Amino acid sequence: MDVPCVRVARENGEATRQRLDEAELLAHDYEIVHDDGDLFIPVSDSDAVPDDLDVVTRDVPARETQTLPEDILGFEPSYERLGEIVIIDEDDPDRAQEVADAIMDSSLPVETVINRASKVKGEQRVREWDVLAGDGTETVHREYGCEFLVDVAAVYFSPRLATERHRVIEQVDSGEHCFDMFAGVGPFVIPAAKRGATAVGVDINAAAIEYLRENARRNDVEDRVTGICGDVREVAAEYQGWADRLVMNLPHSADEFLETAVELAGDDCVLHFYDIQHEDDPYGPGESAIRAVAEPAGYAVEVETRHTVRSYAPHEVNVCLDVRLTR
């Protein structure tokens, strides 16, 4: 049957499927098909598909009967997928186990179900998990042509930010010097290097840096990637004035590291500053903080993009300021 589909290169298929799923645009009654290196992902509303995706009409087969978790439970549970792990967030232990059992009994390609057991905490930004089905918290996540080995019990990683990371990475030019001040397992560093940048990632979590180095090897960019374990404030002197692009994805406290960012910035540097603020003034506090540090250091400050990443909590939003610093 002819239905609207998003056509995407196979290596970008899973990331695009996740993006469409988050936007509730997947047409679950039809199969995803592949042909000559492309995937065709059926969508329910072609007009709502983001403009950067290619929508075509394609004859795809109706999906054979598939058992979903909601078919078993009688209600639709909330969950997200990371590789072959399904992550749920249930407060009641009995309900959590019921949801986990239904996910495992469904047709979803999953090996493990885990439930959030704590909030992200500590300077290493990790949380506790309850493994409800399967074994282990390590998996391989694929995103826009990159492959990331990650253990969610040892490092911070959010698959929900795939679209935002791709937005930033598309701005990277070959030959740039990119510096991620809070790099994790490398979801900004690795794709930047794949675009031809020389990339440095720093993180205080030693496990994250080990995964970053492994992911550089997995994606054949280890010759352009340096992973450093430590406090970025203590590392900055080695890279003073080096960066053409800085990523500051530590939204609760990035403003505390702005002096270090200015130390790292070259004469013309783009800063991606992540923040969480009240919806009434989501960008003003971050912009004021950047100007207060950068302008006395001799930089002209130009905000190129004010971008809302996602809702974070009632009346609070996670935002990003793309700011050009020119000495």
UniProtKB/TrEMBL annotation:
Species: Halapricum salinum
Protein's UniProt name: Class I SAM-dependent methyltransferase family protein
Sorted UniProt keywords: Cytoplasm, Methyltransferase, S-adenosyl-L-methionine, Transferase, tRNA processing
GO cellular component, one term: cytoplasm
Domain SAM-dependent methyltransferase TRM5/TYW2-type intervals: 79-327
Gene3D superfamilies documented for this protein: 3.30.70.2580, Met-10+ protein-like domains, Vaccinia Virus protein VP39
One record GO biological process: tRNA N1-guanine methylation
An MF annotation (GO) of this entry: tRNA methyltransferase activity
Annotated Pfam families: TRM5-TYW2_MTfase, Trm5_N, TYW2_N_2
Residues in the signal sequence: none
Cited InterPro entries: MeTrfase_TRM5/TYW2 (IPR030382), SAM-dependent_MTases_sf (IPR029063), TRM5-TYW2-like_MTfase (IPR056743), TRM5/TYW2-like_N (IPR056744), Trm5a/b_N (IPR040601)
